[in-house]
TrEMBL record:
<keyword id="KW-0812">Transmembrane</keyword>
<feature type="transmembrane region" description="Helical">
    <location>
        <begin position="153"/>
        <end position="172"/>
    </location>
</feature>
<keyword id="KW-1003">Cell membrane</keyword>
<dbReference type="InterPro" id="IPR007227">
    <property type="entry name" value="Cell_shape_determining_MreD"/>
</dbReference>
<feature type="transmembrane region" description="Helical">
    <location>
        <begin position="36"/>
        <end position="57"/>
    </location>
</feature>
<keyword id="KW-0133">Cell shape</keyword>
<keyword id="KW-1133">Transmembrane helix</keyword>
<keyword id="KW-0472">Membrane</keyword>
<comment type="similarity">
    <text>Belongs to the MreD family.</text>
</comment>
<feature type="transmembrane region" description="Helical">
    <location>
        <begin position="69"/>
        <end position="98"/>
    </location>
</feature>
<protein>
    <submittedName>
        <fullName>Rod shape-determining protein MreD</fullName>
    </submittedName>
</protein>
<dbReference type="Pfam" id="PF04093">
    <property type="entry name" value="MreD"/>
</dbReference>
<feature type="transmembrane region" description="Helical">
    <location>
        <begin position="110"/>
        <end position="132"/>
    </location>
</feature>
């Protein structure tokens, strides 16, 4: 079924657009998103990957190679945005695996998707912070990270989930 759907080409195209939108949002709203000491980071790529797993589990008639696309997105994200190769190439597929694991226990709908996305963003930011601490890229304390980065990032991304969930579901249904 996946081989015959428009989703075969639409998923990576929109994933690439989400990568570009992440950077565009961060650039255009940098005065509001990165105002010292707080930082809000847009993660539309993770939103697209999580919604892919949620809608894939909801359909039950096909399985997309979301893990492979997560690796590709991680490579592009690492090379283009961070300049450090190897952090997000492992975190994005890990989030896809974690989301599939959670979906096997929780029936996917809007509220459970919001909870899963909350968990995924928390894991993404925490692993990124720990990797930054391990390679001495960040000297921020754990409490400062939780208050000044994790909290605002969760608030922004959960708001984006609420706003974009139904349009993304419509796009998935159209591409199927």
């Amino acid at each position: 079924m996946y081989r015959l759907s428009k989703l075969r080409f639409g998923f990576p195209i929109i994933l690439f657009l989400m990568l570009l939108l992440d950077g565009s949002i961060s650039q255009n709203f940098s005065a509001h998103m990165f105002h010292y000491p707080t930082a809000m980071v847009s993660h539309l790529v993770v939103l697209w990957l999580v919604c892919g797993v949620l809608f894939e589990a909801d359909a039950n008639d096909f399985e997309m190679p979301i893990g492979r696309w997560a690796i590709v997105a991680g490579i592009v994200f690492d090379l283009y945005y961070t300049g450090i190769f190897g952090i997000y190439i492992f975190i994005f597929p890990l989030l896809v695996y974690l989301t599939r694991l959670l979906v096997s226990y929780i029936r996917p709908n809007f509220l459970s998707g919001l909870l899963i996305y909350f968990i995924d963003i928390t894991v993404l930011e925490a692993l990124g912070y720990l990797a930054g601490r391990a390679i001495h890229l960040s000297s921020m304390s754990g409490t400062d990270f939780m208050v000044n980065t994790l909290g605002p990032t969760l608030a922004f991304n959960l708001a984006m989930f609420v706003v974009l969930f139904f349009p993304i579901r419509w796009v998935y249904n159209w591409l199927k």
